[in-house]
Amino acid sequence: MVTLNLIKKLGVLPHVAMYLDIGHAFWLGWDDNRLKAGKVYSKVIQSGAPGNVRGFASNVANYTPWEDPTLSRGPDTEWNPCPDEKRYIEAMYKDFKSAGIKSVYFIDDTSRNGHKTDRTHPGEWCNQTGVGIGARPQANPISGMEYLDAFYWVKPLGESDGTSDTTAVRYDGYCGHATAMKPAPEAGQWFQKHFEQGLENANPPL
Question: CA 175, CA 119: separation in Å to the nearest integer?
């Protein structure tokens, strides 16, 4: 209901381009997930009329690489046919068009996906070690992908994903996993060590 109200109210403003969150490649990358998502988003957008939705935002606050040819559909990726953001968005574009969505454009968060993190499972999301800034913010960044509006740095590098303090009220077990940098402050607080590593591993280099 909140999403529909936002579409109806913000989507009619003349200088607003609205993008709906679609998680990342390891949320909806599998064939059946993408097909179901197309139906759901189509219904949401239609119900939000007369508000307009420009497109979809992917990889927000996550670490999934933009393009990684070493990843393939297999046991290491849980048989995901879209193991990086490029393949995910390519597939989503086709599926969303097939679902009848008229305006299908994307932005991708590259703020922390420039360097392969140390995570051993693609679902690891908290303060991953090995983090690196990714591609610079840029409009129309990829030739041949006219439906990719831009790369953005949405998640501020250095903003903690969550605390590693097991006694904290908001502690999440993922922030205690082996590949999560520690000690980490509460979510949203400044994490200097993670910030510095992101700069050191920036790709392309700063």
Answer: 12
> What distance separates the 2 farthest-apart alpha carbons in the chain?
50
The values of phi and psi at residue 160, to 5°, are: -65, 145
Is residue 206 included in any domain, yes or no? no
**Whole-model pTM?**
0.94
Q: Give me 191's structure tokens.
A: 């994490």
Q: 152-187: per-residue pLDDT in tens?
A: 999 999 999 999 999 999 999 999 999 999 999 999
Is residue 205 domain-resident?
A: no
Q: Which helix (H) or strand (E) holds 43?
A: helix 31-47
- Which DSSP string do the residues of 172-197 spell out, in sequence order? -GGGGSTTB-SS--STTSB-HHHHHH
